[in-house]
Queue: 2 jobs
Job 1
Amino acid sequence: MPRTRTKIITALAVLGLTTGCGAADMTKQASPFANAQGARTVTLSVQSWVGAQANVAVAQYLLQHKLGYRVDTVQVDEIPAWDALSQGRVDAILEDWGHPDQEKRYVEDKKTIARAGGLGVTGHIGWYVPTYLVRQHPDITDWKNLDKYANLFRTAESGGKGQLMDGSPSYVTNDKALVENLKLDYQVIFAGSEAAQITQIRQFAKEHKPFLTYWYAPQWLFKKVPMTEVRLPPYKEGCDADPAKVACAYPHTPLQKYLNADFDRSGGKAARFLKKFHWTTEDQNQVALMIADQKLTSEQAAKKWVDSHASTWKSWLS
């Protein structure tokens, strides 16, 4: 899913039951509720990874059951979501990992999008190996030692090089540049989607096999497959400014919310609620785990969380 600038992930997840791929990009379709003047309706953009789905599930449940709104959800990829938000096709984005170009264009220059505060969750992308492998080879968590272990990660797809597993070719990552600029004997191989990547990780873990993967937090899968981050060269402000020259780790990014500017002004209780919506990484992971692993519907997962966290969400309604 790095995301304090244009380095973002678009880990694909089917809206509803799981983190599968295949959900259509609804960018060019307007919600029947979006920009409906005077109506008690809200349209939420759902980014295509399960953590973002968890945010929307809880926000939608509370808007519908506690504030009496009708809520529509639209799945839009990260950058097109900014266009949809600016044009009023959606009213809110609840999890953004940092798009400074879009923020300058729409928030600062055009003023068609308004900041809605932090989500309360900090995101981070990195390279990870299974913790069981670290117990066997403790020095594998230093990128300088990765070439020593490249043979452990070779696959049919990576040829004579080690495999660094990414998600989908549509993801925006630094990994190819990192492999080249750090002169590592690795090949970036795309699993195809977040769901395919999760399936592959779980299969490797079941067989206790080595793997090196691009992954990110928050993510429910860490509870099922413990992983340890490989230390890349430290992140410093601006070290990822030129995508072709990146040779540093991904930053830690406080995730942000944004509203359509008209909705921010006229959205009443719904707009105020979304600006107050603020929870923890643990909260998000609880709901994401219920959706992706326990196979609850988004509404079932949201209800279960809401029923046991009244002290958290009641302040959002005031």
Note: Strands lie at 41-46, 70-75, 92-96, 113-130, 162-166, 186-190, 212-217, 227-229, 252-260.
Job 2
Amino acid sequence: MSHPDLNLLITLDVLLDEGSVARAARRLHLSPSAMSRALARLRDTTGDPLLVRAGRGLVPTPRALELRGKVHGLVQDVEAVLRPVAQLDLKQLTRTFTLRMSDGFVENFGPRLLASTAQQAPGVRLRFVQKTDKDSAPLREGSVDLETGVVGDEASPELRTRALFKDRFVGAMRAGHPLSAGKITLVRYANARHILITRRDRDGGLVDDALAATGRQRDIATSVSGFSAALALARGSDLIATVPERHTGGLRAGMHTFALPFAMPPITVSMLWHPRMDADAAHRWLRGCMLEAVQAAPGP
């Protein structure tokens, strides 16, 4: 099946607008003979004379009059598609972005992010949804625009990432906890009762792996799927929650926080998005706002 020469659309649009082969040739920087050949091709393609002589000029046929508006609209649409993206007008931007992240991240960095986006783009709305797993499907399917978390082996290799900050694990307990009196040693930590934080059906995590390297293991009393739930339980009991320090700054307010008595590697918290959003001007702006919000937040 042969494909039509779409360049003929531009030629036809100019010919119908000018009503003259000579003027159309000048407008398209062609010779009159080249424009006459183009008109002949258009007549063959459409099966209609399009422009016929009337006295010393040319007049459009009924078919040409029928096509004039359609052709002009098509040419405008094509030019809009191929035109470079216009500069983003944040004051006129109306859009809802869905962000998937933990409660701790929202509490620590959400207010700054909301203030920044509202000031720059009043018509933008941010929709925060809870991150309950590391499945990349929501980003791939477009139901989530931006996500934050630790990039693990489970993350799809197609995703784009940008590191936001490094974090370290600390212990947290209620104010007045018996363990808060005196130095928290490895033995005292291991002998306490703990809350395991895991989104999967596992008996341990990063903390337990690091603790095992010392020849110890902790007594896990219960497990939860998120930092906020772990800290809520620790605040109301004698259980210990081991959580990322900066990630949970606001959630630990009023609690006793301590450095872990064993070595644990730091974690890197990143933002993740699908590559189809790379060149989207509004999405690039949102990513910049996210980075600024994190950098402006006080450290631990």
Note: Residues 198 and 287 are 28 Å apart (CA to CA).
